[in-house]
UniProtKB/TrEMBL annotation:
This is Fibroblast growth factor-binding protein 1. Residues 1-25 form the signal peptide. Keywords: Disulfide bond, Growth factor binding, Secreted, Signal. One of its GO terms (molecular function) is growth factor binding.
Amino acid sequence: MLFLTTVAPWLLLAFLGQQVSLSSGARNKHRGADKTVTAAPDKAPRSGDKSAANGRGKFSINNKMQCTWEAKAVGDAVKLSVKCEDREARIKGGVTDIKCEYNGKPQSCAGYKSNNKGFWKQVTRAFKKLQGKVCSDESKLVRAGICKRAPRDAHFKLDMMSSVNLAQSGEPETHLPPPPQPRATAAAPVKPTACTARVNHLKTAEENCSGSWASVCNFFLTMLQSEDC
């Protein structure tokens, strides 16, 4: 009996300690499981950033045609819509409007994400360098300077199916009628003078005086004519 009363308390304490240890281990294991379940998953990268595709700008072609462009996200790509207008050509004739679209994937360029505003400014400069080849030469890419080492699809390429050119003939020029030419007035008939009349009389006298009298008639008529003239 003495042995039982001495050992029993120690056995009870050992039993209680084992239960506490098992309970503590179970709680720790449960907490670890909760942490594994509630861990936030990694965010998958987005294929296209629509907030970054908000560029727009202006440029001119040969200082005559005024152009504008605007960027828009389309799926995992970015589309540039280009519109040009020449108001002077509407009057004088020629190409009045140009429209086209360029497509690219600038997301593969690090500069597009780190310096978005600078990227779009360089796109405007690239359009200015193209000049007459805008909307007409698909081999010419629109390249931003900060994306020189980026893949080829990071640059914008012309979609020839979207290219449209509109032309118009000039308005006909209005010609003023020539001023009326002054009419030539008929000259007034010249009245015979006294000398002319004498000449006529002299001719008449020569016709009427014949033979030896002709010289006498001429002499007298000549004297009369010289006195009047």
